Amino acid sequence: MSQTMDLVDLSDLLGLVAGQDKRAFKSLYSATSAKLFGITLRILKDRDLASEALQETYIKVWQNASRYDEGKSRPITWLVALARNTAIDSLRRREPARMGGDNDEDALERVADPQFGRVDPAHRQTLKGCLEELDEVQRRCVILAYCEGYSRAELGKATGKPEATVKTWLRRGLLRLKSCMDRE
Amino acid sequence: MTDTFTPDEERQTLAGELVLGTLDALERQRADRLLESDPRFAAEVESWRGRLSPLDEAVAPVTVPDNVWIRIEAGIKGLEAQAEALGAQAEPGQVLLFDQMRRRVAFWRRSALAGGAIAACLAALVVSSPPTFLLQPLGLTPEVVRGQQFVAVVNRDGILPALLVQVDAAAGTIEVRSVSAERPTDKSLEVWYLEDDQPVPVSLGLVDATADVTRLASSRQDVLKGRNPLIAVTLEPLGGSPVEGPTGPIVYSGKLIPVE
């Protein structure tokens, strides 16, 4: 998988897909779908729902590839953003709020243990270091929201605090994270 | 800890929470608008995506079921075919009178799009079965169509949202789902029902611009009686058509098709 990622230039493929090139679209799908399926599955926790979200994601890719701007974001980041948005929207449509937050620390640990060598290791270390600087509750909220798609209401349930408090934690946490990462 | 943020912090956290996915519907709408109209905000959103992207690395790839690609391909074929037909028939911004709409409907009925091929393509996109009240006008019985589905889909070249319209038998609702990320914010999308010998299209309601899925009641007495039931979606002023019947361009129309 990671080899495939390295072999093809995703930016070039997205450019071709913007011109409605179906072969390029298939190549893009082959190179990225397993990763994006992992992303939608992490959020939705259900293979059928995650498959549906994946399908919707690639239809959006087909329709919106011309909006991808190489100068502004890495292609995989753009694709992941589409997949996460789609999966989170799907989650919000159902959302009997989940309890818990069992494997959030796990996600943080794995920040330092990449299976894909695509992100600059220094950047990874910076994020890890800055997440560790946050209050624990802020860190948990940021990670559960990003990785597992938790809403404010769900975070409130998981932490036993009102949504308004969660909102403040998230915002304070994000600002601290930004100022820490910009400093590094 | 105080709750006050400077305007710059407000922007930053709005961008950050957009990426996290924790905004409520109203905030999300505001953020989506800014994303389209404000390059600085868009750049901030990109920065957030970049900052948090190492968290995606922990995700291991998972083998995708084969049928996902088949469905994507089918969906795209359906979108292309419908966009072609609509492109030949409707221009954005064009005001349609009911007579024109009826002619367009006639075109749809003649065209191959109303046939089984496209329906088969689209079947992959939805999972629902048609309620009896929709089957009767088609001269079908539930036995004949068991396992079949009603579906419609539309794309407007990325200018307007792609929509999937599906009929849910159990819930008795018409579900309109936005597939594309974009939605018009200064207009409303209104859903209409048409059938043969009906004087004026019946409004089923507005597509909720803040939600991905809008559920509309379909159990009205004045619809689903005649032959050739059809759904059309028009672009209307905010809040819907000011008159009885549509005033805006059709951005979508499709026969309610029972799918094999």
DSSP E strands of chain B, number? 9
- Strand neighbour order, sheet with most strands of chain B: 6-3-2-1-9
> How many domains in all of chain A?
2
Largest interface: A-B, 74 and 52 residues
Helix content of chain B: 25-40%
* SSE-based structural type of chain A: mainly alpha
Would you identify the CATH architecture of the largest domain in chain A? Orthogonal Bundle
Global shape of chain B: flat
CATH-defined superfamily of the largest domain in chain A: RNA polymerase sigma factor, region 2, helix turn helix motif
Describe this entry's structure for a reader.
Chain B: The chain crosses the membrane at residues 107-127. Chain B: It comes from Roseibium limicola. Chain B: Residues 117-250 form the Anti-sigma K factor RskA C-terminal domain. Chain B: This is Anti-sigma factor. The complex is a heterodimer of chains A (184) and B (260). Chain A contains ten helices and no strands. Chain A has 184 residues and is mainly α. Chain A has two domains: 2-94, Rna Polymerase Sigma Factor, Chain: A (Orthogonal Bundle); 104-183, Arc Repressor Mutant, subunit A (Orthogonal Bundle), CATH 1.10.10. Chain A is globular. The two termini of chain A are 31 Å apart. Chain B is of the alpha+beta class and 260 residues long. Chain B has two domains: 7-57, no CATH class; 66-259, no CATH class. Chain B has helices at 7-20, 25-37, 39-52, 54-57, 66-89, 98-110, 116-123, 132-135; strands at 149-156, 160-168, 173-178, 187-194, 202-206, 213-217, 230-237, 250-255, 257-259. In chain B, strands 6-3-2-1-9 form a five-stranded antiparallel β-sheet. A four-stranded antiparallel β-sheet of chain B has the order 5-4-7-8, covered by helices on one side. In chain B, a hairpin with a 3-residue loop joins strand 1 and strand 2 (160-168). Chain B is flat and about 60 Å long. Mean pLDDT of chain B is 66; it is low at 88-150 and 153-161.
